[in-house]
Write a structure and sequence with these properties.
Layout lengths: L4 E4 L5 H10 L6 E6 L4 H6 L4 E8 L5 E14 L2 E13 L5 H16 L7 E6 L3 H7 L10 E13 L12 E4 L5 H12 L10 H6 L8 E6 L2 E9 L6 E7 L2 H9 L8 E2 L2 E9 L4 H17 L4 E7 L13 E12 L3 H5 L15
Parallel strand pairs: 5-6, 13-14
Antiparallel strand pairs: 1-3, 2-11, 3-4, 4-5, 6-15, 7-14, 7-15, 8-9, 9-10, 10-13, 11-12
Length: 357
């Protein structure tokens, strides 16, 4: 049996990691491939304040698996805390997946134990039965941390099938330098009410790759901000390739034809990011979404993506929009017992910034 080696990646590994990413697809009614051209590490930079990329290599040094651990500042039970996020776990379809996961996590355990993060979180698609058996099952390999389930994540793909009309019930403006400090203050004040909401700063948004302050949509009531969301086109460093339609989506594609992207097409889309409303109002978010929806149609985007925890009241804002929902599970991944993990968290609804996964 060929020996697999594990090590931290460098920028010299860029092409090998890109080749691996292109070979691994996300199964489902819409089978897609997440690409990171031209530089995989550009996508890592937006995940947090620092990151480590672990790769598995064959004897010829070709890369057959990869995973990322990023550190970021986020709110845990209302307090700013450094947490880790585990993402971009990919294993070549031709490799010994369970063996690689087990040995990879033995290496990853060193990251967990460096004391830099209070806890680590990660997500797994509901349909990814292989990953669930390998990572979540109670009788799994003991080198793998405890995956403590903290609920489902609804990832909405909003498609601009039908026209909508502007709603003038709220005062909505685009972001500018005169209001960025107020936007940051609002995001942190409302975000602290949710578990894992990132801690934001002015400098973060001014230096964020391919993001402009004018990408914000800001809602006012009586001179006070009551809602914030932003559009973020990451196509310069992250792409989604639609590999194949499966199941019911074959029929949906036949019905809607050119309104949906074709197989083999890289889909023009953006993320709806940095979402917060006063008192978590779904009505405010629905008004923001209406303006964003108009921009999808006007600028030729095929869809936009937003993610919400299944218990988040903001899900109600999506009810009147044409969407396809991908479901995943959010986990705290730690070498701790369920009780030890529960002691770290209160009952706030979790938040996941889909754009930075």
């Amino acid at each position: 049996m060929e020996k697999i080696n594990f090590r931290l990646a460098s920028h010299e590994d860029n092409q090998g990691i890109l080749d691996l990413a292109h070979s691994v697809s996300m199964k489902g009614d819409i089978e897609i491939i997440f690409e990171r051209n031209p530089d995989f590490f550009h996508a890592c930079e937006i995940q947090g304040c620092s990151y480590q990329v672990l790769v598995a290599t064959r004897l010829d040094n070709t890369i057959c698996a990869s995973g990322v651990r990023a550190l970021k500042n986020a709110y845990i039970s209302g307090k700013p805390t450094v947490i880790g996020y585990l993402s971009d776990l990919k294993v070549s379809n031709t490799e010994r997946k369970l063996d690689i996961l087990s040995n990879g996590y033995k290496k990853m355990k060193e990251f967990h134990q460096d004391g830099k993060a209070k806890l680590h979180i990660t997500t797994i698609l509901e349909d990814n039965k292989t990953a669930k058996v390998a990572l979540v099952w109670k009788n799994k390999d003991q080198s793998i941390p405890n995956y403590y389930d903290v609920g489902g994540i609804n990832t909405y793909f909003i498609f601009p099938f039908l026209p909508r009309f502007p709603l003038n019930t709220l005062n909505i403006v685009r972001g500018n330098m005169n209001i960025i400090d107020d936007v940051v203050t609002f995001l942190n004040a409302e975000g602290a009410k949710k578990q894992f909401f990132p801690v934001y700063t002015r400098e973060y948004f001014l230096t964020l790759r391919n993001f402009k302050i004018s990408d914000f949509y800001v809602t006012y009531d009586g001179g006070q901000i009551i809602g914030v969301a932003a559009t973020w086109d990451q196509s310069a460093f992250k792409q989604v390739l639609l590999r194949k339609y499966n199941g019911r989506m074959k029929w949906v594609k036949m019905i809607f034809g050119g309104l949906l992207p074709n197989e083999g097409e890289r889909i023009k889309h953006f993320y709806l990011s940095f979402v917060a409303t006063k008192d978590n109002s779904a009505q405010i978010l629905a008004s923001l979404l209406n303006y964003v929806y108009l921009d999808i149609r006007k600028n030729g985007y095929k869809y936009c993506v937003v993610g919400l925890h299944e218990k988040d009241a903001l899900n109600k804002a999506l009810r009147t929009f044409p969407t396809i929902i991908y479901k995943s599970r959010l986990y705290v991944a730690e070498y701790k017992s369920d009780n030890e993990i529960r002691e770290l968290l209160d009952n706030r609804v979790p938040y996941v910034e889909i754009a930075t996964l």
